[in-house]
Amino acid sequence: FFFQSPTVLPPAHQMMRLRLRCGGRGWARKPFVRYSSTRYTMEDFRFQLAKPDHVTVSRRRAKKWYMLQDSDLDNLKSVEAPNPYGDEHDVYELYWLSDVVSLAKAKHSEENIINNYKSILSTASEKATTKEDAKRVIYGMSGTDRWYRNPSSGTPEGKKSVEQGLKSNLTIFCGKLLVSKYTGSFALFADAMHSLADVCNYMYRYYSLSRSTQQADQKHPYGYAPLRHICADRSFVCLVLIGGAVPVSVGVYELGQLASLCILPPHEPTLALAAGAVLVFSIVMEALAMRTASQEMEEREKTGKKQEIMSSATYLEAKAGVYGSIVGLFGVLVTASTGSPVVEIACSAVMGAVVGGVGCHLLSVSGTALLGATLPVERVTTVIEILQRDEVVVEIYDVKTQIIGSDTVRFKAEVHYNAEAITKKRRSLHCIPSAEATNLFKEIEGLQSVASSEDWLMKNDAEFLIAFAGEARRLQELVRKELSEYSNVYVDLSVW
Questions:
Q1: How far, in Å, CA of 13 to CA of 280, rounded?
Q2: Which H or E run includes 470?
Q3: Is pTM, for the whole model, over 0.70?
Q4: Which of 168, 237, 320, 443 sits a CA distance of 20 to 30 A from 216?
Q5: Which residue stretches of 213-268 are H helix?
Q6: 408-445 pLDDT, tens per residue?
């Protein structure tokens, strides 16, 4: 009766009787039900033991449910699948359920197998709930440190340049501040503000770098790597305000004060020369930090990876410090030769403007990284062409890409797969007639009953599903290979 009214389903016990009338298979078979951490109810397990579906099971489940040993499974034909928990260096060995059931029945009586599963079911029902079942497959909620644990999503790249920048600015900041107060040098004050901003930035970045290299966990299953860009973005605000806005505002204010005076105050040349010596030392220390950051960037460029935010920021800030100190040194020397502080005050404002400009540029870069811009159209077009040239792809639709930070990219697309091409590859039906086509014909011709025909169809579809999953993973690897300059490439090729 339910064939005429698809919305009305018969009770479960009627479905079971219909299945038994159909020899365990047929359109009336009991639907595949998943319960608890054991997946099957007792009734489902009995049916699967009598007429197993064409599905694969893991080695662990075959041993636990069907009382088999590793030595037993080593003799069975296995299907390799990638580790579903993200470790690309490990594979799962899966076995056809029909083979596992046949081997289990040969070693144990059906009653023993059922009693074993009954004990598993009763134990699981006492300890497991629906919520606990979900925790088994949610990353980080199992409560155990498993061998397939994801590696650190962040790297200490940029740490050397941050350490060197912190050392350099800590060394020169106190000297700059004391000498600028003693000499009254505006250029040295502006440079001291830049060093103060750098000290605050580098200390914050150094702390965040340590956190960004933590392993992924339950709260952050994709890792802590985005912290690099979040902390960098915040530190750039500090750079703009302390290193840029303060010196510029002080310089403009002092120039306004001097403009209201008819006679400019005298300036002591000896004190100006002391300020110049400190600025020369500052140039040397900033150049050292700049060289360390440059070396890190060159090492990353040799590996073909995108530049990392920490090294790039340290390099630009140190470069701004070198140029700013040169401008300040020019102002100090002019002031020492002329005795007029106007040029030095103007140079201090220029120094602050240079640092503020670099900070604004870095804010723009980090903001774009956090927002997640798309890949360049040329790169996206290249990836699409690679996928469309593949024989198992009919068409590509709805492509979306997103760059996250400097080393992560996401690629999403709807893929119209060519089922015939996948079948030809799986069956080696590259031409007709052929030996493979002849063997397939004989296989189909040998089907003598409706039950055997349905069994052949189910097995064929199960093998096709495995082949299809393999082709989907192969296409994902093509995308990752094309975008290899990014450390992390997440690919989502949905079936259209």
A1: 90
A2: helix 450-482
A3: no
A4: 237
A5: 227-238, 246-259
A6: 888 999 999 998 888 888 877 766 677 777 788 888 88
